[in-house]
């Protein structure tokens, strides 16, 4: 008889129909799964179902079939089918951690048959071991009971088949006999797997790093031994003593996707020792000490007590803007503000229907001047007017040469699209000086207001980093904005980009395309730039390369095309924190005559940051096409670590002082390979802040 614990478990599972118990039954389930059951149950025509009760019944049937099919796939050691089911179904849909009528989970069967690939796939999906195996004795007793009862059932069926005359019932008994013989062999294999297993070896490696001034990050790897059972969880322990007495804390990690753990709430400046041990169905194995053997929570700012550079800056700017608004609030020019605001609300309420109104003030052709165009796109479609034209408004018809400072000023304005009306009123106050610059900027604000009013949208997006010019004297400033799929607009006309490009007929010769022609020809590149400029780096410490080049009216910075909002870079490691000890070492290296850090051969293995920097510098030099021997003249910027939030930080690699910024006409002997571009420094700063 089974133990009382297993009897209780069977009673709890009594209402759950037993799963198929033979290879043939498994194959039938697979065929069902490939057709009827390989869809989400909500995809059935709910209109044909009568009432909620029938829907729930169908749902339970679907879940049972998926769960039974998973058990059969694991029992038959069908790795491909297990992976396919885990890919298409959630753990809840598969009922992944609910025991079957024998008190087993899919993971129990996989580890006791020593099928490591299936066990790892299940662990990655969040599978657990049965909670009913509270000890080695209980597991051994349960397996012995399953083997004994299966053997008893085989003997009973064998006797019935031998003694009964051939008939339909006898044929059915023979099928049951084959099924139970197969299950008997399975249980014997599981029992043998459990008896021959041993506790796991220690993790093959445990790496310890400083995550912050109050936390440490532990990364570990599986044991190297292949003879023990599959590891199903790990335990991380920490103490201030190398003997781990007393033990300050421990954590059990049973999520096997990422073998790392961050210990929080530690005391800055205190040394902590770490060790990790592995667990399988036979128990906990020996611990593995970390490398290095201890670490001290710290941050590079503790070296000189430096506060974060941007602390309070956003609040200070908001306060300053509020003060400026207060000063201008009672100006004469702001008296009609309320009426203008009401008029603007009426304009915005018309939304994008203005695009299709015959009286809209969008331009179809350019006539030597300065213009603003707004590109709204969704997937491969672009927003156009009722005449299938990209929205364009005029800024100034007498402006034949756009000054870079005016353009850069407009890019800053793009950070506050909702304040354009107020900005226009402020410029009006100052216009008595008759400054040409103020007049131009005033006209830019008027054009923005016109575009916002005609579109019914305030946010025009991001300004492309350079205007488009043609030989006819036209200058086109482009803004780009992606429309998310969950946004809805009334009476919008979307046109495929390829259709718009093919239907555009230039009024100029092919040798002299207009600015609008140039925009359509290069629009895919501009949309790609816009999408890439919003990408973020994954968490980690990076080595960036700062290279500038100057022109008459601007300074430009070298960036990669794939991430134009970030300097050229390579990843040093996944941990973004620089500890106080590492920063002290960097300061020491900065004080010696050799710019690139070097150390005696004996000390290199003791300094992980040195090794990481060596690899990163080589990779970065290759990336920007600079001979490695030139790296000896480069320097690490040692004034600060550039922190971008809590998850991304940068160390900067600088060329020799004379080569940081290439002057006009100066020859640059090392030209980067394709895949790079230079942005105006102000544009790059705005992109980084976005």
Report the portion of residues in β strands.
Answer: 15-25%
Main sheet characteristics: 7 strands, mixed
CA radius of gyration: 35 Å
**N-end to C-end Cα span:** 68 Å
| Overall 3D form | extended
Structural class: alpha+beta
Total beta strand runs: 24
Separate helix tally? 21
Which CATH top level class of the largest domain fits?
A: Alpha Beta
Domain Fibronectin type-III: 202-299
Region (Disordered): 1-25
GO biological process, one term: establishment of mitotic spindle orientation
Pfam families: fn3
Supply database-style keywords.
690 residues; alpha+beta; Serine Threonine Protein Phosphatase 5, Tetratricopeptide repeat; Immunoglobulin-like; Nucleoside Triphosphate Pyrophosphohydrolase; 4 domains; 7-stranded mixed sheet; 5-stranded antiparallel sheet; 21 helices; 24 strands; 18% strand; extended; disordered N terminus
